[in-house]
Design brief:
Layout lengths: L5 E4 L5 E4 L7 E4 L2 H16 L2
Antiparallel strand pairs: 1-2, 2-3
Amino acid sequence: MNIKVIIEQGEDGYFVAHVPSLKSCWSQGKTKEEALQNIREAIDLYLEP
């Protein structure tokens, strides 16, 4: 499954990740890699039955 993830750097230096197609599916991390790992977990939790 391919899901579009947007990662942006916030004013505080953290990276914020969100999934436009999944309402309220957001996460963050100190690095891009950490934000991507965290959003993957958030996606898994969001899609759990």
